[in-house]
Amino acid sequence: MNEIVSCSVIDNIAVVRIDNPPVNAMDRAVRAGLNKTFSELKNRSDIAAVVLACAGRTFVAGADIKEFDTGIRAPSFHEVLQLIEDSPRPVVAAVHGTALGAGTELALACHYRVAQQDARFGLPELSLGIIPGAGGTQRLPRLIPLDRALDMMLSGKPLPAATARELGLADALAAGDVVEGAIAFTRDLIARGADPRRTREQPVKNAEKADAILQEKRAQIAKTMRNRKSPLALLEAVKAATELPFADGLKVESEQSRRLVQAPEARALRHLFFAEREVRKIPAVSSDEKARPVSRVGIVGAGTMGGGIAMCFANANIPVTIVDAAQANLDRGLATIRKNYERSVTRGSLKPDQFEQRMALITPTLDFSALASADLVIEAVFENMALKKDIFGKLDGVARPGAILGTNTSTLDIDEIAAVTRRPQDVIGLHFFSPANVMPLLEIVQARQTAPDVLMTAMDVAKQIKKTGVVAKVCYGFIGNRMMDPYAREAEHCLLEGATPEQVDSALEEFGMAMGILAVFDMAGVDIGHLTRVARKHLLPDDPTFYRCSAMLTECGWLGQKTGRGFYRYDNADRKRTPDPETVEMFWAEGKRLGAARRTPDRQEIQERCFYAMVNEGARLLEEGIALRASDIDVVYTSGYGFPRYHGGPMFYADTIGLKVIRDRILEFGRTFDRQYWTPAPLLELLARNESTFDKWDASRRA
Ligand code: 3H9
């Protein structure tokens, strides 16, 4: 086995190399190795300078995130980084891949930085609910202007090497091997007799403008990072850098950092970091399984979904053929795609030549037989079983043997769709979320006969088109929409009892949902959900209050934003939602007629009813094996349904509240409301009784 930190000498230059696969995380062993190596180098008079580099695919990609749960053991980050910065001879970081978090902080503690041309430097700590805690908040604004340093830490977006060079974060770029480049740079330093250039000794750049810059960033945080603690802590630490000597600023950073690491926000975000990686592990698929190659894709249906899906593939440089039954639909669909890309060009996120390349990858046609050469066909037509069966029957006749047939249904029985083909093993659900070219989630629905290699291919495709693929089994609504059902049911019921749509939505938004569910219904079209409920009437509860508000709005033709009126009115100049006293009265009168108690639930009760109903359904999905893991549900909700990441997803949130508390509240609701909805799921009951959590349940199944 390779040594985790090794040192070799080339002429009078020591090359220290970290080798800690897969991403050179700076765990205790790396810190201990660096400590030992730099302590020894300090006393070596034959060494004129040091190059610090990493083996493998990247420079250090951060602290070891697992260590935050167990506690950071000695030597500390500060101790090691100070030792490096104290080095009596110049230390040059040779950066390749992505220097992230403690990786960038390590590079900042070196005296010079040489970066490979395609390397990047990032401080993504806020995405983990913490702040750079290894000196990053103090050293970065000493190397690059304060506002740029704050932008980098607030956005978490890594800086490309060229920008890092322009700003003064990198001293030189290397076109070829970065270690060779760094050695050449170091030889030049030695020849010039250059001294160590310690970042901590530099003044903060733009410190005189600190008040105005910090104020602007505070306003930005209030707008875009609502309910988050770590961004404000970051500002405190950076403010300290502008006002205090380095050592005192470092103390402020440490205090803020320590406070955040075990706070709920950081625990939730760490949970999601690992959940988003765990999701790729599918126990039913053996590691020898090979994915089928996908180099041409077909799409049936040129509507909003079909067009968005086509863009996902064109963006990944995969040619797509879109088939529709009507030329007018194709024309409209292509015009929308063009408009979306044009908007990206105007915003500067797409170059004009890339725009043309992507459009050229999309071929519209009325000819179904054009799908014969596709490796994967995705049906994205209206949510209607008869129509989907008809299309799958035709696809079975046209698609080449071995082609994968996907359906973008969000609710329908995929086994029933697969059964019309002679190849049910090749049929799979690929549920994209609207707008498909933007939303990161892809629910991958494994039907009864879906072959393991088809499942694996779908996971690969998700990665290729930069989506988070989560596997679900077949049931009404799969993971996401099935759990939405009880959540929105409660939201609507509150209206019959005397709450207003603003009260309900603001309770959900204060919790952190991107948008209240009633406003979501207005945006999507109130009739959409209503019509699916009409189609499944025989399967729904015999309860006249069930989604009664949506039914009434649909009967009135008040379908949401598209008709200017729904749960809210949208008839002002900027089409923003405004209260509608007439609908409120209408709901209350109906509630009275149906015998719903008039009780005006408060914010806490609205939140508890909506989210506990959702969690209870999540527990049922786990029992039924529809979702593989509680953490998969969390990924679905945070990446597809606007659930706040800082709560970690509904199942993690439930764990933080305590499953016993939730079980007891559900029983209490059962005494007040309809017991058919308020009975704890057996798994929730079991875990609550054992004082366990969904997280422990996941872990027990992994073991
Ligand atoms: C920090 O540095 C705090 C400091 O300020 C100090 C405070 C005192 N730790 O993502 P991948 C694992 S905070 C532990 O699939 P990719 C990952 O779980 C840290 N494990 O690869 C996976 O394991 P498995 C700031 C880590 O090529 C495997 O490595 N840094 C870590 O798609 C491969 O990962 C970050 O936030 C880690 N730091 O992407 C960067 N990183 O195979 C986090 C990865 O068992 N990392 N693993 O599932 C990343 O963004 C991506 O992993 C990276 C590679 C871009 C590096």
| End-to-end C-alpha gap | 27 Å
Give the count of helical stretches. 30
Q: According to CATH, what is the topology of the largest domain?
A: 2-enoyl-CoA Hydratase, Chain A, domain 1
**What is the CATH superfamily classification of the largest domain?**
2-enoyl-CoA Hydratase, Chain A, domain 1
Overall 3D shape: globular
pLDDT averaged over residues: 96
Strand proportion: 5-15%
What does this structure look like?
The structure is a single chain. By secondary structure, this protein is α/β, with parallel strands linked by helices. The protein folds into three domains: about 5-260, 2-enoyl-CoA Hydratase, Chain A, domain 1 (Alpha-Beta Complex), CATH 3.90.226.10; about 295-470, Rossmann fold; about 480-700, N-(1-d-carboxylethyl)-l-norvaline Dehydrogenase, domain 2. Helices cover about 50% and strands about 10% of the residues. The protein has 30 helices and 17 strands. It has an eight-stranded mixed β-sheet with strand order 12-11-10-13-14-15-16-17, sandwiched between helices. The chain has a six-stranded mixed β-sheet with strand order 1-2-3-4-6-9, with helices on both faces. Strands 5-7-8 form a three-stranded mixed β-sheet. Strand 14 (about 405), helix 17 and strand 15 (about 425-430) form a beta-alpha-beta unit. Helix 1 runs parallel beside helix 3 (about 75-85). The chain is globular, with a radius of gyration of 28 Å. The protein binds (S)-3-Hydroxyhexanoyl-CoA (3H9). (S)-3-Hydroxyhexanoyl-CoA (3H9) binds next to strand 5 and helix 4.
